[in-house]
Design goal:
heterodimer; A: alpha+beta; 3 domains; six-stranded mixed beta barrel; four-stranded antiparallel beta sheet; 12 helices; 11 strands; 17% strand; elongated; B: alpha/beta; Rossmann fold; six-stranded mixed beta sheet; 7 helices; 10 strands; 30% strand; globular
Chain lengths: 450, 234
């Protein structure tokens, strides 16, 4: 029998026992819906975690420090790079330029943070200043912030962390647009001895530390605690553009080390963060940085284990979701076995009129597949609606907790297609037994059946 | 008798036994016969005489325990189940006592069913259904369901279904068994017309001897699975 005729006959048969077949299809639909809802939750949470982590800058960042001679300090280097020889290379301006020219590197910036005393309305407050690189604007920490991000990388502007803002004023929102004064310890080169005629290279060793004051406009308040993770700037309570922070020449802990160097006038960095275009470029860049003579760390291994955790999580959700579909497949077997009993005589007539065993088998298969297709489509719609419901509920809950809205359930196209295909496959598998039983029916006995 | 000398059906020492618990039932035993192309043969006998079993064996719905059956010199025993299905589809047409129309299909769809199974093109199907339905004078009832037809009309529809694929052998199992006398005669007249105009071989199982005598060219009588008489109408 041709496929089109087979389809027409199958649809006619399904319409005939409409209630029973609809209930069976509904059962499959509920099974698929449970599978889709479970998987959408798994995929949604995975997407959420990946997105937040990607935006936190943890997975495209490499943390660079000067190579130290402390044995065992950097376990990564063991067996990978040649052991450090001679003097470790300082992390200075030249090193920063070298790092910036490496392939796929988008940004190289130092971690600048320093203690300060800020003055607002005549009262002093001690806090920590952190420099925010230009790429920080896309950081998830600034989602839902009050006010705005810095107008330019060199603007004399500040963003306050909410706790600091509350310290400064009970009505923290009113701080935006105001001005604060920042007092800090500035590193000053020692003045050359008058009349000595010596060149800059022969400038006296050391530097002086002098208090300095800077005025900044408050442009925003970060509502949520910025993530204080690796390569981030979260621990600072007062955030200013990195270029401004560098310009201030505030004293850093690395200054102490500079004092011990031969040329203390040349400033070095305690650490530099190198950002690359994507997580996949991290390994190559890390190796290149190590080849330049620095120590480098990244969180690649952490991403790998995160993916593994989510793969197991999805698998478990998929198994639980599939259970309902397996139960639904028993419904298909039951429906089709009942149909054989009811249509015994019809099967006998079909065979007497020239239907081969394979025609009868295919007819029952198509009926099972059609129920799987319809149930699959219905289940995907239902599962998608459940996902939307979960998202809506989560948003309402987060809004009540004053947290930014997120989507925890996601139904991508591949999941829709896979769920429908799985539904059809399970239905066909459920149809194997009834279809072969129908095909093997003895036509004479079937025709005699009343 | 319109026999052109060709043999339509030949059985050679055909037996069919069933196991009923411990007992073996010899439904058909050692039957050898030849039916010429274009013959109208009535297979007579009482209930349980084995006539329907023999008809089912010739129809390819059942396989003999021993012996051979040839239809147009093709041995049914050598056919696999797919080939037997093709044989039932293209070579034989069947009519049953209980009509066996599919109740949810219209008359037209019932008649079309063998053409669907034989994978005949849709355009061709329409023409063949019209031709077959016209032959049994039911053109006005195409869209009716079996429940909306009288017994005689249902059997005529079943006849159209048996003819639609243009088989060479028509096998009828008690075709008038569920009909009153007048309607039964109508069906018999139709069978005779089909036999005479199309030259189709007809093998009809019946227990109504007078009807067999009136319409069939030849009557084969069976009892206890064996042929007890085989006679041509005078």
């Amino acid at each position: 029998m041709k496929g089109r005729d087979l389809g027409e006959l199958a649809v006619r048969n399904l319409r005939e026992a409409l209630l029973r077949n609809s209930l069976t299809t509904l059962g499959i639909g509920v099974g698929v819906a449970s599978l889709v809802a479970m998987l959408s939750l798994g995929v949604g949470l995975q997407n959420l975690a990946s997105e937040r982590l990607a935006r936190s800058g943890l997975f495209n960042a490499i943390f660079v420090t000067p190579r130290t001679n402390f044995e065992g300090y950097n376990r990564d280097q063991q067996g990978q790079a040649p052991p450090p020889t001679g003097e470790s290379r300082p992390l200075d301006e030249a090193a920063r330029r070298d790092l910036a020219t490496l392939p796929n590197v988008t940004e190289v910036y130092p971690d600048i943070r320093f203690p300060t005393e800020i003055h607002y309305n005549g009262n002093p407050y001690a806090t920590i200043v952190a420099g925010v690189p230009a790429s920080g604007s896309s950081d998830s920490a600034f989602d839902g912030m009050k006010g705005r991000f810095f107008s330019s990388p060199s603007a004399d502007e500040a963003i306050l962390q909410i706790d600091l803002a509350r310290q400064l004023s009970k009505q923290s929102d009113s701080l935006i647009g105001g001005e604060i004064s920042l007092r800090y310890a500035q590193r000053e080169p020692l003045p050359a001895e008058p009349g000595s005629g010596k060149s800059a290279a022969d400038a006296p060793a050391g530097f002086s530390i002098v208090p300095h004051e800077e005025r900044l406009h408050i442009v925003g308040i970060v509502e949520t605690e910025p993530e204080g993770g690796f390569g981030a700037f979260g621990r600072g309570r007062l955030l200013i553009p990195l270029a401004v922070a560098e310009k201030l020449r505030a004293t850093q802990t690395s200054d102490l080390r500079d004092l011990l160097r031969d040329s203390p006038v040349q400033r070095t960095y305690e650490s530099l963060t190198v950002r690359v275009t994507g997580a996949s470029q991290v390994q190559a860049a890390e190796n290149a940085i190590k080849a330049l003579g620095f120590a480098a760390y990244s969180l690649l291994d952490a991403t790998r284990s995160l993916r593994l955790v989510f793969a197991v999580f999805d698998l478990l959700l998929g198994i639980f979701g599939s259970l309902a579909l397996i139960v639904a497949s028993l419904g298909i077997i039951n429906t089709l076995v009942m149909a054989i009993l009811e249509r015994r005589r019809e099967i006998g007539v079909l065979k007497a009129l020239g239907a081969a065993d394979s025609d009868v088998r295919r007819l029952f298969f198509v009926e099972a597949g059609a129920m799987g297709l319809l149930g699959g489509v219905f289940g995907v719609v239902l599962g998608w609606l459940i996902g939307r419901g979960i998202n809506l509920g989560t948003r309402i809950y987060l809004a009540r907790q004053n947290l930014p809205a997120v989507s925890v359930a996601s139904v991508p196209l591949w999941m829709i297609l896979a769920a429908i295909a799985f539904s059809i496959a399970v239905s066909l598998a459920a149809g194997i037994y009834p279809a072969s039983r129908a095909a093997q029916l003895n036509p004479i006995e079937a025709l005699r059946y009343e | 008798m319109p026999n052109n000398g060709n043999v339509a059906v030949r059985t050679e020492r055909v037996s069919r036994q069933y196991q009923m618990g411990e007992a073996t039932v010899h439904a058909v035993e050692d039957v050898s016969l030849e039916i010429g192309a274009g013959e109208f043969v009535a297979l007579l006998g009482s209930s349980g005489s084995g006539k329907s079993t023999l008809l089912n064996l010739i129809a390819g719905l059942d396989r003999p325990t021993s012996g051979s059956i040839f239809a147009h010199e093709r041995n049914l025993a050598e056919m696999n189940s797919e080939e037997l299905a093709k044989y039932r589809s293209h070579t034989v047409g069947m009519v049953f006592q209980a009509f066996n129309l599919l109740p949810r299909m219209t008359l037209e769809e019932n008649v079309e069913l063998p053409l669907r199974l034989a994978e005949v093109d849709r355009d061709e199907r329409r023409a063949r259904v019209a031709e077959a339905v016209n032959r049994v004078h039911l053109s006005a009832r195409l869209t009716h369901r079996p429940s909306e037809l009288s017994g005689g009309e249902q059997q005529r529809a079943a006849l159209a279904r048996a003819l639609v694929n243009r088989p060479t052998i028509l096998l009828a199992d008690e075709p008038t068994g569920n009909l009153d006398s007048a309607t039964g005669d109508e069906i018999m007249l139709l069978l005779r017309e089909i036999n005479e105009t199309l030259g189709m071989t007809i093998l009809m199982v019946t227990h109504e001897a007078p009807r067999a005598q009136r319409f069939a060219h030849r009557q084969i009588r069976m009892s206890d699975g064996k042929i007890v008489s085989d006679g041509v109408r005078a």
